[in-house]
Amino acid sequence: MRKLFAGKSAFFAVFFLVTFAFTWNLVHGAGAIVGGLSLAAPELPLLAHSPSVPPDPWDGVRLAHTPSVPPDPWDGVRLAHTPSVPPDPWDGVRLAHTPSVPPDPWDGVRLAHTPSVPPDPWDGVRLAHTPSVPPDPWDGVRLAHTPSVPPDPWDGVRLAHTPSVPPDPWDGVRLAHTPSVPPDPWDGVRLAHTPSVPPDPWDGVRLA
Question: pTM for the whole thing?
């Protein structure tokens, strides 16, 4: 402490700071100082050095130095360094180095070096050097020098010089000179000259 106040410059600096702080309190309305010093300035009406606008309702509210947005719901969730996708169901399945297709059912079948077609059923049949058609059934039959048509069945039948039609069944029947209609059954019946209606049953009845 003695070393601090030994220098004159340090003494004057401390004195200046104490005096400056005391004067600052008096000027800004600190009021009367305890002890009743006569250096206290009279109280003056304080006017605001700003426009007469209502105070800011958010003036006493202190916000953090971050945007006022709701927190991220995934903020406390820590994910691994891989995409958040479901695991591959085939991930633990190890396949051989061949395509995953069913084996060929003909893989173990060995064929000869010939086409896999059924043998020709005519392969062992030897034909003569003639066309393979059946023989002509009329080949050994010798015909006369006339057309091979059957004879006319009417060739030996001799007909008269009249038309070959049956006779008229009514040719010998002679009819009278009257029309061939049946007689009238009412022709000989004579009717009276009165209407053919039944008599009136109320004709002889007299009412009072």
Answer: 0.15
